[in-house]
Amino acid sequence: MNWKLIAAVIVGLITGVLLYFWTESVKNEQVAYAFMRLQPDRKVTRGQAITPDMLAEPVMLPESFGALAKLAVPAASAYQEWLKDRTAAADIPAGSVLLFQYFDDTDGGRLTTMIAPGKRALTLPVNAASAVGHFVEPGSYVDILGTVDEPVEPVAPAAAAQPGAVPGQPAVPGQAPAAAGQPQAPAQPQSPVEQMLKNYLTQYPGADENDVNAYRKQAQDYKLGISSRTRVVTRTFLQNVKVLAVGAATTAEGAVTKANSTYNNVTVEVTPSEAEMLIFAMGQSNGSLNLVLRNPADNTVEDLPSINWTRM
C-alpha cells in the first residue's frame, strides 16, 4: 500500500478545505462592503415600492467608508429579501446608494406611506370566519358586508271613503273646507311628509285623525332614521376595497409568518365618508363585519339590494 499517496491525498483535501473557507471569508468581506444602489436613470418617490428592476449592480466601497456600513443597505441576500416590496419613506435620487434612513422599518411608519392621497386607513376587527379563513392578505381586494337593523317605512292607515266627499278635495282632519266663492289663502310650501299625507288623504278622505297623526309621526321618524319599526337585513356596504395590512403585516410575505398568520384585525383603504359609514355599520352590527375575498382581476362594482327573510 502506497502510504505516500494516501498522505498526499489527505494533505490535498485539507488544503482544499482551507482554501474554500479562505475564499468564502474573502467573498463575505467583499460583500460586507458592497451596497445596493438605484439605476442611474431610476429615482424613487415617497410611498413607491422598491422593485428588482430599479436596482443596479452593487457598488463596492473601500474600507475607509466603514462607517457607511451602518447607514447603507448591504448587498447581501438577507437584505435583498428585506428590501423586497419595501416602500420608500422619502424621495430617493436616481443612482443613489440605498440608505436605511430612506425606509421607515416600523409597520406604522410604512403603512402611512402606502395610503393613497385622499384615502384613509381604517382597521376592522375580524376573525377567521369573517376574514375568509385568514386568506385575506395585504394587497387583497374585498367586499365588506354586515347584518344590521334597518328602519321600515311606515304603512299608511286604512280608510274608507266618506259619503258625500268631494272627489279630489282632501278632507284633512281638523281643517274645514273653504266656502264657495271664498278666496284661497296663498299655499304654503309643504314638506315631503305633508305632501305624502295630502296625496293619501286625497284618495282616502275618511282616514281616522288618530291614525293620520300616528302615520305622520312614523313618517317623520323614518325620514330621520329613528323609526321604532325595524327589520334585520344583510347589506353590502362597500365593494372592491384594498387591504393595506393584516395584523401588523403590510406585505403578503409578512402575513404568512407565524406571528401574523392568525391576525384579528384588517386595515383597509377607504375615503373619509366610507370610513364614517363603516364605523356606523360596526356600531349597528356589534362590531362584526364580514370580508368577501375578490379575484384581483375583478373590479366590478354591482348594485346589490339588501337581503332579508322576504327577499332571498
UniProtKB/TrEMBL annotation:
InterPro entries: RcpC_dom. The chain crosses the membrane at residues 5-22. Keywords: Membrane, Plasmid, Transmembrane, Transmembrane helix. Residues 158-191 are annotated as: Disordered. Residues 158-190 have a biased composition (Low complexity). Pfam families: RcpC. Residues 110-148, 227-294 form the Flp pilus assembly protein RcpC/CpaB domain. This is Pilus assembly protein CpaB. It comes from Rhizobium ruizarguesonis. The lineage of its organism: Bacteria, Pseudomonadati, Pseudomonadota, Alphaproteobacteria, Hyphomicrobiales.
